[in-house]
Amino acid sequence: MKKSHDQLDDFPKEEVRSAIQAGIVQAEGQINNKIIKTRRYQMNSGKRKFLYAVSSVAAVFGILIGSSYYSPTLASSLSQIPIIGSVFGNSNLIGLQKAQKQGLTSAIGETQTIDGISVTLDEILYDQNNITIGYIIESEKELDKFYFGAGADFTINGEMPNGSSGGYGEDIQSPTTRTAIQEITVSEDMPNDFELGLILQGSKDETWYFTTPIKQITGISKVPIQHIANVDGIHLTVTELTLSETGASISYESSEKGTDFQQSRGNYIEFQMVDQDGNEILSHSGGITGKKLKGKLLYKSNKQFDPIDSNVTELTITPYLALPTGGGGVEYGENGETKELEFKRDSLQPVEFESFKVKIPQ
Amino acid sequence: MKHDVHTVKRAINGDAKAFEELLILEEKMLYYKALSYVGKKEDALDAIQETSCKAFLSIGQLQNPEYFSTWLFRILIRECYQLLKKRNQIIPYEGDELFERLEKKQDSGVESFHLSEALSKLDSSYQTSIILFYYHDLPIQEISEIMEKPVGTIKTYLRRAKKKLKSELERSFQLNEKIT
């Protein structure tokens, strides 16, 4: 048959595999009636998205449905020299360090190189709060600061989730080396073990596609709370406290009358958690989902904390409002059109909630 | 058959992992075949992605697992052709080799460098059918599937294309003779 054309010398194995895998994901998306238009992965969700991000006193906080955001908090948690050891082990997040030391993470170590950019999927932790993913990225040439946008999109057993929240942060250690941590907030519909697909896209449309089985860590205990508070029109129900080796979390729901997310305060609820000796357990915020229903705004979230020590017998939890100091938002419409949302800080009045105590079963 | 029949059957039943395994076994062939049709790496990768998608969507219809490779490459070639068609491009070829093949079947005393020029003067459907038939050795039935035209039409394309090529090449040869 024909002789060779040019470019026969180097077989681009990773790129070919990436194209094969992207094609399968694209097909699976079509089978599941998900709208995934790809050119080795360009996603275009037909669903109406609402994305709202503000800079607040609690760093970055957001209502995110179907998207994730670049998180300075995560970025700052990365160590300056994480290549030796692991991204998690060298981060300054206690839960991740602990998980790494105790072997609760899954070490992956798979590297894919496209056009001189090597992305290594270093390790993954799937606990009750997040699926946390560590990446090491090395490139031949210097890359822009936001080359990888807000991190990878993901699939669960090959399907795109209907909605998700999370964060992505990078530490740029040199013009050609960076480490990154991505957090995907665990939602109720995530199975305990599944095939996680990660689709990371570079700004020149390169796509790194990883797939790996993951399993939630064991030893997660749940303490039912059912604490209810009604303050100044905000109805708050704290449902449970979840504890594991890698972190703690408080699950709650809040609602208030109204239809304007910007006039709402229920999405700014945070918690202070202090043990019986007065030691504060550090909070890491956490994504929140919100929806409008029958003239009410309903929110649901898990607020995340560092793991608590084994000698903790009781926690005092104080809900509070972390109202933003500035910011704004963007609403994404069905056809990708955007609408700037003006920041209306003045209309949001602070409120105070009462503390409550939770006994920790020993 | 180079593929494990059980893996092919798993893929036919919708097992994405099995399907991926099969494509990875063919990865080099997929790439170089696509490259030979589209000429550029990026286009070859696009064609592979589309092939992977369409093949996965339709593998349930594959009745004979032993024909998996033939079936897969047919999809790939069709995708390459579609991609070039969208861009109004013709399948690349090497003049010398195509010329040799044409010459075996035609009595023409012209040199290969005139071929490109003569070929470029043909209607794009004629060019494509000539390249697929003589350069890529595809049977008329497959060319008909790729170009989505009846077999009779492809035969007509080939006959007319050869006739036009012949007269074009002879004209070029005569002109060349006069100049030298």
Distance between the ends of chain A:
74 Å
Under the CATH scheme, the architecture of the largest domain in chain B is: Orthogonal Bundle
Give the overall shape of chain A, derived from the CA principal axes: globular
- Helix-strand pattern of chain A: HEEEHHEEEEEEEEEEEEEEEEEEEE
What quaternary form is this? heterodimer
C-alpha termini separation of chain B: 55 Å
Q: What is the name of the CATH class of the largest domain in chain A?
A: Mainly Beta
* N-to-C series of helices and strands of chain B: HHHHHHHHHH
Please report the number of helical segments of chain A. Answer: 3
Structure description:
The complex is a heterodimer of chains A (362) and B (180). With 362 residues, chain A is mainly β. Chain A has 2 domains: 13-32 and 44-215, bacillus anthracis domain (Immunoglobulin-like), CATH 2.60.40.1630; 221-326 and 347-359, Sandwich (Immunoglobulin-like), CATH 2.60.40.1640. Chain A is built from 3 helices and 23 strands. In chain A, the strands form 5 sheets. Chain A has a 6-stranded mixed beta sheet with strand order 3-8-9-6-5-4. In chain A, a hairpin with a 2-residue loop joins strand 8 and strand 9. In chain A, 40% of the residues are buried. Mean pLDDT of chain A is 74; it is low at 1-7 and 33-69. With 180 residues, chain B is an all-alpha fold. Chain B folds into 2 domains: 5-86, RNA polymerase sigma factor, region 2, helix turn helix motif (Rna Polymerase Sigma Factor, Chain: A); 95-179, Arc Repressor Mutant, subunit A, CATH 1.10.10. Chain B has helices spanning 5-12, 16-25, 27-38, 41-58, 68-86, 95-105, 113-120, 124-135, 140-147, 151-179. The model of chain B has no long low-confidence stretch (mean pLDDT 81). Chain A binds chain B through residues 1-8, 11-13, 15-24, 26-28, 30-31, 38-40, 158, and chain B through 16, 19-20, 23-24, 27-28, 30-32, 35-36, 39-41, 45-46, 48-57, 92-94, 97, 135-137.
